[in-house]
Amino acid sequence: MEELKVKNAVIGKQFKTCDNYEKFIEIVKKKKIKVVVVESGEKINIEKYLYFDVLWPNSSNIISDNVLNNNSLVCKLVYKNFSMLFTGDIEEMAERKIMEEYKNLNILESNVLKVGHHGSKTSSIQEFLNRVKPQIALIGVGKNNTFGHPSDNVLERLKAIGVKIYRTDVMGEITINVTNKSRIRIEKFIK
């Protein structure tokens, strides 16, 4: 936000402050950026066939363990027959609460999954992956990171269900193009 021109920022409801959030507020005030705070049950309309369903956080069901990660903004982007689930930094505890909240709905089912918490061993449990049923998984992770992300267990779970995996540490930035007929084309920065 310091380098880009940003008109609007959408964030999940915050339940704890941190240095990054304080810096975010400072930049927002300085650059006069409009901030929209959302939580589960809300919809963000972008244009006629494009919107986000906000699935998490839920202020009536706050997770107190690792509050910043487990109450990350989780939303599903929908464009016609294409969908992508953005999971922030949620961990197993949040995945289970989200599955419980939407247990009778197939709202989690998505073509693409942005894997939670950089593919950490604390995320992407089998039951959650089974509910999402992704064809493609994106893992945003730094090369040679000290956390050991992504976890070998997460990679194995994704491979076991036939998911194509794209990682920023190996492929650089990743662009997804979706046609009007919902065909998905992935472009990698590093060939």
Question: If classified by CATH, what would the architecture of the largest domain be?
Answer: 4-Layer Sandwich
Which sequence of strands runs across the widest sheet? 3-4-5-6-7-8-9
Count of alpha/pi helices: 6
Question: Per the principal axes of the C-alpha atoms, what is the gross shape?
Answer: globular
Mean pLDDT: 90
Q: What helical percentage do the residues reach?
A: 10-25%
Report the end-to-end length measured between terminal Cα atoms. 28 Å
Q: Biggest sheet, in brief?
A: 7 strands, mixed
Computed over alpha carbons, the radius of gyration is 17 Å
Give the ordered list of helices and strands.
Answer: EHEEEHEEHEHEHEHEE
> Which structural class do you get from the secondary structure elements?
alpha/beta
The CATH class of the largest domain turns out to be Alpha Beta
Give the DSSP E fraction (strand runs of 2 or more residues): 25-35%
Please indicate the count of domains. 2
Number of DSSP-assigned strands: 11
Low-confidence stretches: none
CATH homologous superfamily of the largest domain - what is it?
Answer: Ribonuclease Z/Hydroxyacylglutathione hydrolase-like
Would you tell me which CATH topology of the largest domain applies? Metallo-beta-lactamase, Chain A
Q: What's the oligomerization state?
A: single chain
Overview of the molecule:
It is a single chain. This protein is of the alpha/beta class and 191 residues long. It has 2 domains: 38 residues, no CATH class; 150 residues, 4-Layer Sandwich (Metallo-beta-lactamase, Chain A). 25% of the residues lie in helices and 28% in strands. The strands form 3 sheets. The protein has a 7-stranded mixed β-sheet with strand order 3-4-5-6-7-8-9. A two-stranded parallel sheet has the order 1-2.
